Amino acid sequence: xxxxxxxxxxxxxxxxxxxxxxxxxxxxxxxxxxxxxxxxxxxxxxxxxxxxxxxxxxxxxxxxxxxxxxxxxxxxxxxxxxxxxxxxxxxxxxxxxxxxxxxxxxxxxxxxxxxxxxxxxxxxxxxxxxxxxxxxxxxxxxxxxxxxxxxxxxxxxxxxxxxxxxxxxxxxxxxxxxxxxxxxxxxxxxxxxxxxxxxxxxxxxxxxxxxxxxxxxxxxxxxxxxxxxxxxxxxxxxxxxxxxxxxxxxxxxxxxxxxxxxxxxxxxxxxxxxxxxxxxxxxxxxxxxxxxxxxxxxxxxxxxxxxxxxxxxxxxxx
Length: 318
Ligand SMILES: *[C@@H]1O[C@H](CO)[C@@H](O)[C@H](O)[C@H]1NC(C)=O
Ligand SMILES: *[C@@H]1O[C@H](CO)[C@@H](O)[C@H](O)[C@H]1NC(C)=O
Ligand SMILES: *[C@@H]1O[C@H](CO)[C@@H](O)[C@H](O)[C@H]1NC(C)=O
Description:
Blueprint: H1 8-22, E1 32-37, H2 46-51, E2 57-65, E3 73-74, H3 90-99, E4 103-109, H4 121-135, E5 152-156, H5 163-177, E6 187-193, H6 202-206, E7 212-216, H7 231-243, E8 248-254, H8 268-279, E9 285-291, H9 293-299, H10 301-309, H11 312-317
Parallel strand pairs: 1-2, 1-9, 2-4, 4-5, 5-6, 6-7, 7-8, 8-9
Antiparallel strand pairs: 2-3
Helix pairs in contact: 4-5, 8-10
Catalytic activity: Random endo-hydrolysis of N-acetyl-beta-D-glucosaminide (1->4)-beta-linkages in chitin and chitodextrins
EC number: 3.2.1.14
Subcellular location: Secreted
């Protein structure tokens, strides 16, 4: 197993996985909750999200433009204006989150596939270096999120229209993984549709570089939840578990009815009754990813499923 050499996060992830593996199907707990933050100023501060204690991972969304010689663009949709250094103050919030044990990642991508792509292995290497220097442990002069070092990078990408272009997501992930040091693991995660139709990250996931994959059961996928027929969701989860070379898989869900165009919302009580007993029975089950913090804060989704997904008793002791 590759986990052993990879430092503290992996230890905690594998601990979660062990907990999940030792609980038989039907029991719960032992999972983690991930959320996206950054796409709606109405969602409130990052530090406030972390102080809820509901989240274990927060993906700051998004670095929308990068690669192919583009100037990188961090777009936090009105939270702050990164082009004038106006997002550097987020460093305090990031550190607050990290002190609370929340892993904070920079999410690459977002909706507009045309604004990000990688032309070559060299392009991927340069983007990895840029990310390391500007968001991770590197020492760029002007860092968009200030001096706090993020825990890793999330790939929520769609760009790369040709097969050859898509190869380079693997180069980028591998380049970032190469910056991991003892005690300073660069955490790598990816968001992918529950269907295998989307081939953008297929090779990168197959290369085994991602610590976690958030499998999106929303946005119009045929494998979304339906109360009458759980089979498509179950088959998708089974396939991801059998095929994905990632240490942990998360069930990605909209945090409210309106959170995702194309549906996929599972009411919390349906989730805990119908979905969780099934998904948590798999050894790669890592927990739940919610899109996004705004809708979660409005709907209280994570608050409602927290004690079933995580071990509330265990967590209050930590
Ligand atoms: C951010 O600042 C830049 C530079 O001053 C400005 O051109 C841009 O319009 C601002 N963006 C927003 C969304 O306010
Ligand atoms: C990562 O480092 C290894 C060993 O130095 C090197 O062979 C490999 O090319 C690097 N990978 C990337 C994608 O930069
Ligand atoms: C939740 O589950 C109940 C009982 O199975 C079902 O009737 C209802 O339609 C489900 N709700 C949604 C939104 O799927």
